[in-house]
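Students often ask what a holo structure prediction actually looks like on paper. The answer is less mysterious than it sounds. You provide the chain, you provide the ligand, and the output is a string of discrete structure tokens encoding the 3D arrangement of the protein together with S-adenosylmethionine.
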Amino acid sequence: MTTAAASANIAAPRHDWTLDEINVLFALPFNDLLFQAQQVHRAHFDANAVQVSTLLSIKTGACPEDCKYCPQSGHYNTQLEKEKLLEIEKVVTQAKAAKEAGASRFCMGAAWRSPRDKDLLAVEEMVRQVKALGLETCMTLGMVDGEQANRLAAAGLDYYNHNLDTSPDYYGEIITTRTYSDRLETLATVREAGMKVCSGGILGMGEGARDRSALLQELAKLSPHPESVPINMLVKVPGTPLEDVEDLDPLEFIRAIAVARIMLPQSHVRLSAGREQMSESTQALAFMAGANSIFYGDKLLTTGNPQAERDRALFAKLGLHPERRTTCEDDDTHAERLARQAEQHARAERVAALAVDASV
Ligand code: SAM
Ligand code: DTB
Ligand code: SF4
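The corresponding structure tokens follow.
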């Protein structure tokens, strides 16, 4: 490896990517892009380890927001059966089953604009009890304020998911009931409360290539980068305004995964919704491009996901294994990451010096 390549692969995470730089990555020949993404991936992760999360909808449907992709919005008729907040015991039973099936993180989602304080009591108890099973906990409950975030963090919530969904420019075409700044504010609040951030977006909503670049640019501006970055392929649900939107070419989706891997080198990039509609080859390319997390289990929130058995077979075919938490960099504090980066830089310098020595 050349000195430049060695340093590029382990360079400190950047927050100042320009759109031109991102567009250049997207425009690389496919093989070159995937090679670069693989190099970055291998500098930071075990390239054959995939973090495995399971999702559960703890409150389904009748959401007041108008997200045009979402089967749970009360604005559209998607024939979805609405459900009130699940009882704590039911959530714990599902979490136990997820753990037995091999998940290391349990993600609970609610169709809320933001949680009401009376719901928060039950939700805090869910976090405590799921965590007591030895699972990592993640929740996505909509917008939260400082007090709510502090309460969730104190209950032991590890991750909070709140997606930027798309570019600032395209956002208004997709959601009108809350703003991009509202989303950024929730992400800042979650970070301030000391939780890990899970934030990504959806591709295939009719956005342009520049919007995909701009979404990744916004995610990379977050400092530190989100520990977890779900990249969803739109699941087209009948009754939603996006049900007939044109399909995104799967190779464009893979390019976005590869660019995300390069721009967010230390984040887990999750090949998120849309896997049920994807071929095994597309999924294999996504792992090659640097995706290293999936949702595992037969259901996402309200739509389907590949059967667990199919995923086990795919992992076996590809020689992938579930990530073991004890070796997960995701658990590091920011300070530990900085220390590790410094060590990696020093190592690259030593390797570069050796290369120079050998050439004289
Ligand atoms: N109500 C909360 C919120 O919006 O933050 C939490 C639940 S919401 C369903 C979580 C995320 O699921 C959304 O931000 C969106 O990115 C993703 N999502 C929803 N419907 C989807 C679909 N049809 N296809 C792909 N992703 C979807
Ligand atoms: C994320 O980015 N994707 C997940 C999780 N975070 C909460 C949700 C996908 C939902 C897909 C549509 C559904 O099943 O309702
Ligand atoms: Fe509601 Fe979340 Fe669906 Fe938007 S994405 S309609 S906020 S559940």
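The pocket of DTB (ligand 2) is lined by residues 55, 71, 107, 109, 140, 161, 163, 200, 230, 232, 235, 272-273, 300-303 (CB under 6 Å).
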